[in-house]
Amino acid sequence: MARFFADYLFASRALAERHGLAWDFPVNALGKASKVDAWDLTALAGALSPPRLLLRNFGFDTKTLQHIDAHYRETDKSLIQLATPSAAWQDLIKAAAVNGILVKRNSPTHVIGQVVRPLKLIATCAGNTEPWELAFDNIQRALEVAASIQPSGQLRNTTEAVIRYVIDYNHLADRSPLLPVKRANGDRSVAWIRQAPRANRLRTQLADRHEAQKLPDEKAFWEFTRIVFTESPQTFIDALRLALGQTLIMTGLRIGEACMIPTDWSQLRAYSALDGRPAGDYGGISQSLVLRYFGEKQQSADVEGQLLYPQIQHIPNSFEEPLTETLNRIAELTAPLRQTLTAQIKSGRLLPDFGLDEDVTPAQLFPYLSGNPFVYDDPERHNLEARYKISYDVAILEEIEQRQKNLAANGGKLRNEVRIYFTRLRRGREALLPCRNQYGCIPRRPRSSRMNYIDGTFRIRDLEAFLRAAMPTKLPDTGVFRSADGSEIASSDFLFLLPRRSLLEERSGGICDVRKYFGVARLISPTMMRAIGDRVASTGGKTLFEKYAKNEADSRLTMTTHSLRHLQNTELFRLGIADTIITKRFGRRSVAQSYEYDHRSLAEELDAIEVPKLANDLLPPKAQQVLRMAMAGKIEGSIIGEFRRLQKKKGDKAAFEFLAVEADGFHTTPYGFCVNSFTVDPCPKHLECYNGCRHFSTTDLPEHRENLSSLKAQLLEAKQQIAARSSESVGYANQLRHAASRLAGVQSALDCEPGAKPFPNGPDLSKPTDRDDGHSVLD
Questions:
Q1: In whole angstroms, what is the distance from residue 744 CA to residue 724 CA?
Q2: What is the pLDDT of residues 163-220, one digit of tens each?
Q3: What per-residue string of b and e applies to 145-177 under the rule 16 or more CB within 10 Å gives b?
Q4: Helix segments in 372-442, DSSP class H
Q5: Which helix (H) or strand (E) holds 482?
Q6: Residue 649 in contact with residue 671, Cβ under 8 Å?
């Protein structure tokens, strides 16, 4: 074992043991530990569940195994069959998880998805290779498999990040660093590894967007917007999802931030002039709506556990009314759930409506445990359910309860669902939840385990203990969060609450009595992400598109929640909002972060540049576009140079008149920009801009430089192949000269600063006298 690897494990093990974690525990044949031995990463991070994330699966990555197995079957090779990764790989997974949570202060979700998963993928691809024995072939294979499993490229990026920041950074492999490396068939560095497949990398048109795949698909976005703003929810939880979708569109918050909006989210701020009068009297704004929320990605490295960081967002006037209506409606819908959860938190009980020593019949308990308000057969059941689903009005639930009481008083028939529910609940665990008689005693007869559904009772003390042990997935969220300002925030203080695992609604089409149901939970981000088909979340249930789409094609649409944040950020840039305002709106720490979310097309970027009024009067649209690019420093050339000379010597009017005549042609090429007027003939160089054209100017766009680098490698290979064929013919010399001249031109373009002209002394190809016979000026 390598020394650095042993040191890394030793330090990580000591850190884990200081926090009460047992390092060595057994796993089964598939590498899975029991829930008792598993590490609770949520508790380790000081976070509250749900979600409760356990580190217990140390086996091979299933999707990676399937991919490798299919590949080896196709090539008639045998795959090394191992039950689980070696003990060293399992220890590395534990060590990386401990460091991710306790040292780097990453969230449990990040550690499970972006540290543990890539490590398991690498271990699967490595087979019987130990971590310190990793070589470039193992890494290359892992990256290729990651790209094949997830075409979006995200898994490949996270896998590379683990290689770089876990394996290489800590020198865990004998051959570290494994990144960067050299490509086998060329002299380019490992930049190719970082380039995950991205759609539309090259912006060949002014309308093309940079990294457009981070924006929502246009059809999916408009269908999603139609659904969340116009459709009537089929379930109570769908009502929350639709409202959350509206909130995401109007605010651009992260999904986790939107889920944790507090109940006291609204603040009205008044603005006045120095004399005390409202600012609106002087043309300003007298009052604005502010949204309170808790920002993510604000954690400090020296904080124990996870804190909530209060943030605010000013809401535009156009969104004030709809956002207020949406969030107030959610507050109204979740008020009964909030009342129940508040009582549970204060009392520390699950069923605070009853005394601990109170004996209660199954008929009374059924709505509290299952959520189903129909205990007795009611001929109006379906009508009442349909009425409730129109508005989710609590008054209808009260009407149902009164009808149930009347049915019970008049000898109504107990529904069979009640018997089935409690029979299944106690099956095999009757001793943990004994059924008592009407006197509160446990019968001692041999058949005492059978329930008496009419006169039998359960003691609440016994029932609460049974629920905590037997139904952990339905327990309410009674945890308390700590805020960065020193206050404590209970789960009941959040706006979006839902009945936890309300299967009656989601699967059976019934309704849930939110006034009584004991399992109250916060709405968490995976619930919404699954509802729109976000690939990051695991699949489960129908998406909103499948439920509410008007046709089959739309039902197959999917979207990512984070793309809405990218969309709003881009729209604000497009509308000319200052980057400082955008940065503050989204709770970021630096302006540079906002530009990571800027996906405007080049045409939209240029539209944001204001041109002088005189230019608007004198210049046609295309010439105005050229002026904006010149003002932004994105193009250079002979025409731009002459324009600036005239502007400096003779003033704006003369310069604009010159530009109006000369700048009728603007071209975006695969290698840079060209400002030249070919009124009659096309480009005589056939867009070989790198072949000594004086009108060619380089850019700072990475796509253009990547194309030049790729072309350089191709020309180098062509030159080598030509040189390898020994010949004295004229054609041989011409081919070699042609490749050498093009290669020199490409190298000149690569060596040139962005925005500069590689060939300032090249011929003016717009003049017939300067045109050559097709040979390069570098020949």
A1: 19
A2: 888 888 888 888 778 776 433 333 333 333 333 333 334 444 544 566 777 888 889 9
A3: bbbebbebbbbbbbbbebbbebbbebbbbeebe
A4: 381-391, 394-409, 416-426
A5: strand 480-483
A6: no
Phi and psi, residue 711, nearest 5°: -65, -35
Q: For 266-285, give the secondary structure using H, E and C.
A: EEEEECECCCCCEHHHHCCC
Mean pLDDT of the chain: 79
pTM above 0.85, yes or no: no
Sign of the C-alpha dihedral computed for residues 755, 637, 707 and 623 taken in this order: positive
H-helix or E-strand containing 468? helix 460-470
Measuring CA to CA, which residue among 431, 436, 440 is closest to residue 451?
436
* Beta carbons of 375 and 334 less than 8 angstroms apart: no
Separation CA 64–CA 291 (nearest Å): 44
Exposed e or buried b per residue across 438-477, where buried means at least 16 C-beta atoms within 10 angstroms of its C-beta: eeeeebeeeeeeebebeebbbbbebbbebbeeeeeebbbb
Return the amino acid letter for 479.
G
Q: Is 410 exposed, middle or buried (0-12, 13-18, 19+ CB in 10 A)?
A: exposed
The number of CA neighbours under 13 Å toward the Cβ of 639 is: 28
Residue at token pair 């120095």: 274
CA angle (316 as vertex; 278, 528 as ends), nearest 5: 145
- The identity of residue 581, as a single letter, is I
What's residue 625's pLDDT?
Answer: 65
- Mean pLDDT throughout 246-274? 91
d(CA 253, CA 239): 19
CA distance 146 to 471: 37
| Residues forming a β-bridge with 311 | 293
pLDDT in tens, 355-377: 999 999 999 999 999 999 999 99
Beginning with the edge strand found earlier in the chain, give each strand of the sheet holding 488-490 in spatial order: 266-270, 287-295, 307-315, 480-483, 488-490
Q: Give the position of tokens 């639709």.
A: 242
CA distances from 718 to 671, 721, 737 (A): 20, 5, 12
- CB burial class (10 A; 0-12, 13-18, 19+) of residue 425? middle
Contact 523, 259 (CB under 8 A): yes
Please count the other Cβ atoms lying within 10 Å of the Cβ belonging to residue 128.
Answer: 9
Give me the torsion for CA of 542, 548, 549, 550, rounded to 10°.
140
Q: String of b and e for 485-512 (b: at least 16 CB within 10 Å)?
A: eeeebbbbbbbbbbbbebebbbeeebbb
- Using only C-alpha atoms, the chain has a radius of gyration, in whole angstroms, of 34
- In eight-state DSSP terms, residue 214 is G
User: Considering only CA atoms, which of 517, 544, 516 is closest in space to residue 528?
Assistant: 544
HEC-encoded secondary structure of 80-137: CCCCCCCHHHHHHHHHHHHHHHHHCCCCHHHHHHHHHHHHHHHHHHHCCCCHHHCCHH
As a whole number of angstroms, the distance between CA 344 and CA 346 comes to 6
Residue 187 CB burial class (10 angstroms; 0-12, 13-18, ≥19): exposed
Residue with tokens 């054209």: 693
Looking at residue 412, what DSSP letter applies?
Answer: P
SS3 string, 529-540, reads: HHHCCCCCCCCC
Q: CA-CA distances (angstroms) from residue 541 to 255, 307, 506, 527, 529?
A: 19, 32, 8, 10, 12
For residue 238, count other CB atoms closer than 10 A to its CB: 20
How far apart CA 350 and CA 519 sit, in angstroms, is 8
DSSP for residue 148: H
Strands 497-499 and 520-522: antiparallel
Give the type of residue at 457: T
Q: Where are the beta strands (DSSP E) in 3-75?
A: 39-40, 54-55
Candidates 109, 50, 48, 54; CA nearest to 523 is 50
pLDDT of residue 198: 39
